[in-house]
């Protein structure tokens, strides 16, 4: 076989490789478009992750087949190379078991949809937003700015806070001296239009009632269902609104009380004062 004919065949193989990769990627995009119209849909983040992963796998497989074909056309002993590569790969595999474990764990994380990029998760002692999911490592960004890089093989337990709606909990302390029924009525009236003010709220806030009997106050509990990870901001706004509503109706906040008695058990003096911070 002359050099010109070999070069032509190699060129044809390279051209076919490029065409197959483009057609394969287009087919994957079409499959995911059709899949998005199905009754059971994947999350957008997971679809992007899976699509990117499958495109990379397709590219590597086609390029590998193309490389083997080109070597065969150039009269190079491919079987010998593959056998040698297999022996080397086996040796490397024994010395890189943790790397193999990380890669396998990365595949399961992606295909089982344990978490996706943008999810707020807890992994071990780390809590934050998933910045990147790779086949070997996962990057977690904490709210204070640190980026934690965790090998996938070390991820044994995951808490995903972004898969379902969140629930905000607000506790309101009411002094025993105040009218509890009046306080409940004020809070209930304030909660009625509250869900319409914020689009993050998926269900109207609900006053559950008395949650605790403290030493100098009664605790009323309000819960509100929000979109994933929106409960913190909504709870802060809800506390402010409840405080303003209670102030407008003359319902005061509780404060510590000090009661003094004489040694013989008779009441000597009773006074109430508000403790300053640090006293």
From TrEMBL:
It is found in: Cell membrane. Keywords: Cell membrane, Membrane, Transmembrane, Transmembrane helix. Belongs to the MscS (TC 1.A.23) family. Residues 99-162 form the Mechanosensitive ion channel MscS domain. Gene3D superfamilies: 1.10.287.1260, 2.30.30.60, 3.30.70.100. It is a multi-pass membrane protein. Residues 56-97 form the Mechanosensitive ion channel transmembrane helices 2/3 domain. Pfam families: MS_channel_1st, MS_channel_2nd, MS_channel_3rd. The chain crosses the membrane at residues 6-32, 53-74. This is Mechanosensitive ion channel family protein. Residues 169-252 form the Mechanosensitive ion channel MscS C-terminal domain. It comes from the Bacteria. The keyword Metal-binding does not apply.
């Amino acid at each position: 076989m002359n050099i010109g004919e070999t070069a032509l065949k190699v060129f044809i193989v390279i051209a076919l490789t490029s065409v197959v990769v483009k057609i394969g990627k287009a087919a994957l995009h079409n499959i995911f478009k059709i899949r998005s119209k199905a009754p059971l849909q994947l999350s957008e983040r997971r679809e992007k992750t899976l699509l990117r992963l499958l495109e990379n796998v397709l590219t590597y497989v086609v390029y590998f087949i193309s490389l083997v074909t080109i070597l065969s056309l150039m009269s190079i002993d491919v079987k010998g190379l593959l056998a040698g590569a297999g022996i080397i790969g086996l040796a490397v595999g024994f010395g890189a078991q943790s790397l193999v474990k990380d890669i396998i764990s990365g595949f399961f994380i992606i295909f089982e949809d344990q978490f996706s990029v943008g999810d707020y998760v807890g992994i071990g002692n780390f809590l934050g937003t998933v910045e990147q999911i790779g086949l070997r490592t996962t990057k977690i960004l904490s709210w204070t700015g640190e980026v934690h890089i965790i090998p996938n093989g070390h991820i044994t337990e995951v808490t995903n806070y972004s898969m379902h709606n969140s629930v905000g909990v607000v506790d309101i302390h009411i002094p025993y001296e105040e009218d509890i029924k009046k306080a409940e009525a004020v809070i209930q009236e304030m909660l009625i239009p509250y869900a319409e003010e914020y689009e993050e709220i998926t269900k109207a806030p609900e006053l559950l009632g008395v949650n605790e009997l403290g030493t100098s106050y009664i605790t009323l509990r309000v819960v509100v269902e929000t979109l994933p990870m929106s409960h913190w901001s909504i709870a802060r706004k809800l506390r402010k609104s409840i405080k303003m509503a209670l102030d407008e109706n003359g319902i005061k906040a509780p404060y510590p009380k000090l009661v003094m008695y004489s040694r013989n058990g008779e009441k000597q003096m009773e006074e109430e004062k508000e403790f300053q911070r640090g006293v």
